[in-house]
Design a protein that fits this description.
By secondary structure, the chain is an alpha/beta fold. Helix content is 34%, strand content 25%. The chain contains 14 helices and 20 strands. It binds adenosine-5'-diphosphate, aspartic acid (ASP) and magnesium ion. Residues 9-11, 41, 151, 173-175, 178-179, 181-184, 208-210, 266 line the site of adenosine-5'-diphosphate.
């Protein structure tokens, strides 16, 4: 017997029929002899709809009230899944965030889980009750409802798995595992049977939204075994216990497996950044700090940065990227400081995409970046900025060229599935 936490995403929970299929999967898992807890997302599109209501009600909404509104999507699906399970003869009950409780800090709309009381949950699971927990929500120190940021149900699931000491956390979604790149963009993407925490963390942080970044870092820290697999299956599909999906594993586990390590593990695209260029910034100590300090103080995350120095003129152009959601705030802030920074013009562009290739193989092999640059150049794709880490190379390109770039890079690194 094992203890399993199962998480179902929005597409899997979209409507009564799909919830019935989910309930069937949960029931089958329990009948295999396991204790189960289930974490659910709101129905697909529901969180977006609720966010829009908040915007319409008050453009500068109070994040605490925003949380009250957007957390409701998961309340509905957790109740519906419990009802459906009961209709199938299972013992099931819902546990809202405050009932577990899932304690978070008070950073509304992007709260962090601090601690989960697992005693009652474990006792109820041990009696054969299926615990259904809404993802995405928690309770603040003041007792108010909080949410964990978009895609946060993955993190709820991993946190619950860590708290109840689960043997495995299965993340059910609308694809049957983690692929070399988004299988909805590249038909030749290959499913990976195993991927390491470190690579998954990097892939998630550069835009592979199959798992929320925070869920991966939490799983890595707590040593939670995570599997990504499909909920769009019927009764004849193999049990999750047979590991039909992608397992997130440690480096040692991957080394010990018979999976051949490729140079590149995956490619991700992210269209959620925007580019800002300040022209003719004075080339003197303190100039760059004058640009980035106020952004940092306003909690605006700057990602890629390039500076071109015009040697003879004592001036430089500075280009960088910020999250699209923060573009207006960043522009306003820089406009206000135009004289103190001393730039000439501010140019911004939100039609950009960041394409990243990730793989631990890069540590020991040169030439990954140059293959990337050459491949894009051959297709006439212009690179606007570059950034690298130990296991990643990212480039900024025109958003219209995203799909082409991902496809040609996938081929160039020899990752295409042989059909
Ligand atoms: P859920 O609603 O179940 O949380 P998400 O939409 O958040 O699902 O994440 C699943 C989606 O992630 C897939 O439909 C796929 O388009 C996308 N995706 C992006 N990169 C990858 C990848 N490397 N492997 C698998 N799916 C990916
Ligand atoms: N429903 C939330 C969202 O759409 C959380 C989640 O599904 O992970 O962001
Ligand atoms: Mg998701």
């Amino acid at each position: 017997m094992a203890r399993i936490v199962m998480k179902f995403g929005g597409t899997s929970m979209a409507g009564t029929e799909r919830i019935r299929r989910v309930a069937g999967i949960v029931k089958r898992q329990q009948e295999a002899g396991h204790e189960v807890a289930v974490v659910v997302s709101a129905m697909a599109g529901e969180t977006d709809r609720l966010v829009n209501f908040c915007r319409e009600a008050n453009a500068l909404y109070d994040p605490a009230e925003y949380d009250v509104v957007v957390a409701s999507g998961e309340q509905v699906t957790s109740g519906l899944l419990a009802l459906t399970l009961q209709a199938m003869g299972c013992k099931a009950r819902s546990w809202l965030g405050w009932q577990v409780p899932i304690r978070t800090d008070d950073a509304h709309a992007k709260a962090r889980i601090e601690d989960i009381d697992s005693e009652a949950l474990i006792a109820s699971m041990a009696q054969g009750d299926i615990a259904v927990i809404p993802g995405f929500q928690g309770v603040s120190p003041e007792g108010r409802v909080t949410t964990l940021g978009r895609g946060g149900s993955d993190t709820s699931a991993v946190a619950v798995a860590a708290a109840v000491n689960a043997d495995r956390c299965d993340i059910y979604t609308d694809v049957d595992g983690v692929y070399t790149t988004d299988p909805r963009i590249v038909a030749k993407a290959r499913k990976l049977p195993l991927v390491t925490y470190e690579e998954m963390l990097e892939l998630a942080s550069v835009g592979s939204k199959v798992l929320q970044t925070r869920s991966v870092s939490l799983a890595m820290k707590e040593g939670v075994r995570v599997q990504v697999l499909s909920s769009f299956i019927d009764d004849s599909a193999p049990l999750a216990d047979d590991l039909p999906g992608t397992m997130i594993v440690s480096d040692e586990e991957l080394e010990g497996s018979d999976m051949e390590r490729q140079l590149i593990t995956g490619i991700a695209a992210d269209k959620n950044e925007a580019k800002i260029t300040l022209t003719r910034v004075p080339d003197r100590p303190g100039a760059v700090a004058a640009i980035f300090s106020p952004l940092a103080e306003a909690n605006i995350n700057v990602d890629m940065i390039i500076q071109n120095v015009a040697k003879d003129k004592g001036e430089t152009d500075v280009t960088f990227t910020v999250p699209q959601a923060d573009l207006l705030r960043a522009q306003a802030m820089l406009e206000e400081r135009k004289d103190s920074i001393g730039y000439y013009r501010m140019i911004s562009d939100d039609k950009v995409a960041k394409i990243s290739v990730v793989g631990v193989g890069m540590r020991s092999h040169a030439g990954v970046a140059s293959t990337m640059f050459r491949t894009l150049a051959d297709r006439g794709i212009n690179i606007q900025a570059i950034s690298t880490s130990e296991i990643k190379v990212s480039v900024l390109i025109d958003a219209d060229e995203t799909e082409l770039a991902v496809r040609v890079l996938h081929t160039a690194y020899g990752m295409d599935a042989t059909a």
